[in-house]
Amino acid sequence: MKRTVPALLVLxxxxxxxxxxxxxxKLEAVSASRVAGLAQAKGLVPVQSGDATIRVELxxxxxxxxxxxxxxxxxxxxxxxxxxxxxxAAANRFLKGHSLCLKVLDAYRPPEVxxxxxxxxxxxxxxxxxxxxxxxxxxxxxxxxxxxxxxxxEQEMPSAFDDFSKKAAAAYxxxxxxxxxxxxxxQRAMTSAGFSLYQDEWWHFNDLSDPAALSxxxxxxxxxxx
Length: 226
Fold this sequence. Notes:
five-stranded mixed beta sheet, two-stranded antiparallel sheet, globular, alpha+beta, Muramoyl-pentapeptide Carboxypeptidase, domain 2
């Protein structure tokens, strides 16, 4: 006897956007140049393409993150949409006038990793729930950044990266005047370059200049050789 899915169940699945979630990335080393070449065909470029002096340390490529786990394969380059990379370069030019530079902690994030992150921390105030919508990181339209001096030394900011608490808010209310100054410079640099703040994470900035780019499916890691 042929089994059929009840009509109400079909409607429920459609309405809730039910879909299978991707498997984790394989953590075998990859060629950065090959990945960058495949990514370019998808509209993604290295974050340093507009300014080679921007520092990069992808925290999910090391165990130095809140989850203490490597989630990106070795060799994975920091990528963004091409227009977003130009905005990062503009922000970095501003900061150099204050003897500071950008350091990118995360940029394009493969959807495979976004699903892993949400499984580890199920609070979409801090980690977007892929069952509702993909993170802007997955489209290369969001970056996580901090400040370093011209020698590459990280500067003290309101909290550590991925501090899921009120300390991470973009509106720093702490007593340290130097931290207030640095955060104000970072926010001025990023917003004047065309980024928007995210109120719950001082390090997170969105590039919302092309809303259409955030619709539809993001670029999956498997599409760019990961």
